[in-house]
Amino acid sequence: MLIFRQLFDEESYTYTYLLADSRVGEAIFIDPVKSKIEQYIQILADLSLTLKYAVDTHVHADHVTALGDLRERLHCTSVIGAATKADCVDYKIKDGESLSFGAYSLVAIATPGHTDDSYSFFLDVSGEKMVFTGDTLLIRGTGRTDFQNGDARMQYSSLTKKLLTLPPDTWVYPAHDYKGWTRSTIAEEKAHNPRLQVKNMAEYVALMDSLKLLNPKFMDVAVPANLACGQVK
């Protein structure tokens, strides 16, 4: 049986996902936040789980990752996409590879654009499909593309050629939401996400270039720390 939990960091509006196979007790965290590590250790203990992997969808700019702390305290394997510059991680996963936990496999999908190292992760549990999209596809939005080698053209390709080609009933679980929404579907985002109501790549690039966004308030701390797996100097 799949164990699934959606945990929330109220300071950075980050969702962290716990996935586990209850039959063998193996677990994965996606996008864990450093300040929440005691909560993570507690829920693993409560559910009698052993953490196998700690995964980041990309090098975050809005919070400090718990990858390094989880690896140090629980001896799990830390994972980020192959393009990352975070050389501290144990394993740089490539497009199409998977991470197994018990009877389940989490499949990596390279989705660059928000950053050059952005990945999404897909899970199919007896026909119920879930995709963890990081900052690439948000609920009624998409991730900004104006720093960390972001590229609106690459993001448009990641969206239209990869994520939006998933089955329409796939549940979408983003890394953040600022309005309290917890999940959507591929079909719902195709129909109602304003960033996706464009005719072509040129319109999408123009839309993203028109955004005038302030840098994340923790960016100066978070990026260098996350390149070191969450070790704050």
UniProtKB/TrEMBL annotation:
<dbReference type="Pfam" id="PF00753">
    <property type="entry name" value="Lactamase_B"/>
</dbReference>
<protein>
    <submittedName>
        <fullName>MBL fold metallo-hydrolase</fullName>
    </submittedName>
</protein>
<feature type="domain" description="Metallo-beta-lactamase">
    <location>
        <begin position="13"/>
        <end position="176"/>
    </location>
</feature>
<dbReference type="InterPro" id="IPR044528">
    <property type="entry name" value="POD-like_MBL-fold"/>
</dbReference>
<keyword id="KW-0479">Metal-binding</keyword>
<dbReference type="InterPro" id="IPR036866">
    <property type="entry name" value="RibonucZ/Hydroxyglut_hydro"/>
</dbReference>
<dbReference type="InterPro" id="IPR051682">
    <property type="entry name" value="Mito_Persulfide_Diox"/>
</dbReference>
<dbReference type="InterPro" id="IPR001279">
    <property type="entry name" value="Metallo-B-lactamas"/>
</dbReference>
